[in-house]
DNA sequence: CTTCGACTACGAGTACGTTCATCTTTATCG
DNA sequence: CGATAAAGATGAACGTACTCGTAGTCGAAG
């Protein structure tokens, strides 16, 4: 579990790093936005981002963070009471917010919670473990190919939504493809063939696309 | 989207209720733990829980909330700086935490993030969820074809208006069709057949077209 | 009596499911 | 490390199922 701590105050950065390491995270520290950008060549599970930095406001980094794959969880930290910053950060797409002074235990809890979200997803009899990219359905392990796995994950993350083919092509494939393609259909068929749960719950929405119907 | 606000200070409770209603939530207020317990016979999507209450600490309710199904999202609210409360609440299983004074916009953002979004229009006993393209009437799920769904949506968005066939053909169909067509009639019949509410409320306006009569 | 809407049934067109051939990527083994 | 095999991704082709729109008839309203 890799965490990037972006914090310019050396004492605080050091303290955070120590604590998080102790709590079982693997920590990297960046003191400036520029350095953070360099570090982000490597993948991170989460980024703890101070708002006040020597070379700019922390939240300017958020749009960039959101384009990364895998997209790291984003936690902002600001001096207390700056409520506007808080709202602004959340609206930009930060996943959580901490008010300084940082309570270490709280940081740990929030971090673990955010990271866990992307760790294991269950849906009916299915379980998808993001760490190992393993899928089981009704206790049976299912071997998924890359695309199948990513498509499945997207459906799970948007269960209930009617998703049209263009959206799927855009987000699961990198494609921005104009013409007509059966590719999505083919992969949907694979999912339905491999998993009984998908066979039951993955509905086609005529003239639109597909919808993963929630189990109740 | 039902939210239970547990807050004893009447002014604050009222303000919260107003704002959340405005933001599109359906709000119920409880002033004490005892009252909250009574309200929780009904299902809620989220509970906003003040820590200081006349008859006890708010977090004592958390274990009970976690046994409910559907399990509501739990947001705690406390006076600022009570960091221990914060950690304690999160460890007990609250999903999020707000520091008073509550910033309404922040509350809205956090609520919307925690609660699975539905984009629904309701009309009498009918509910149409745009996100999943599903329709229910009197609790029953109704399977709609694409055109039926779009026509229904158009009627809902223009309830009360008398809509002539040309307008419907223009806007629901892509048609710019001059001649005479029974197409609209056919689809109106489908709607009336499939949904009791439509059977009752979708009136024909002689020599003009149709009008969806508002329910009172 | 005339006109308009309700309703049924049918046919054309279209979108989806499925298979298959081709190209690409990944894995294996020397 | 490179060659070769295996597996996966892709999109075209074809069959099928479904939806939509049209026509014809009946009944009701004006």
Give the strand content of chain A. Answer: 25-35%
Determine the oligomeric state from the structure. homodimer
What number of domains of chain A?
2
Record the strand order, biggest sheet of chain A.
2-1-3-6-7
Architecture overview:
Two copies of one chain form a homodimer. The first copy, chain A, has 216 residues and is an alpha/beta fold. Chain A folds into two domains: 2-117, 3-Layer(aba) Sandwich (Rossmann fold); 120-212, Arc Repressor Mutant, subunit A (Orthogonal Bundle), CATH 1.10.10. Chain A is built from nine helices and 14 strands. Chain A has a five-stranded parallel β-sheet, sandwiched between helices. In chain A, helix 6 (146-157) packs across helix 8 (183-194). Chains A and B meet through helix 4 and helix 5 of A and helix 4 and helix 5 of B. Chain A binds a DNA duplex (30 and 30 nucleotides) through residues 145-148, 179-183, 185-189, 204, 206-207.
Secondary-structure blueprint of this entry?
The structure is a homodimer.
Chain A: E1 2-6, H1 10-22, E2 26-30, H2 33-39, E3 46-50, E4 52-53, E5 56-57, H3 62-67, E6 73-79, H4 83-92, E7 96-100, H5 104-117, E8 120-123, E9 126-129, E10 134-137, E11 140-142, H6 146-157, E12 162-164, H7 165-171, H8 183-194, H9 196-201, E13 202-205, E14 209-212
Parallel strand pairs in A: 1-2, 1-3, 3-6, 6-7
Antiparallel strand pairs in A: 4-5, 8-9, 9-10, 10-11, 12-14, 13-14
Helix pairs in contact in A: 6-8
Chain A binds a DNA duplex (30 and 30 nucleotides) through helix 6 and helix 8.
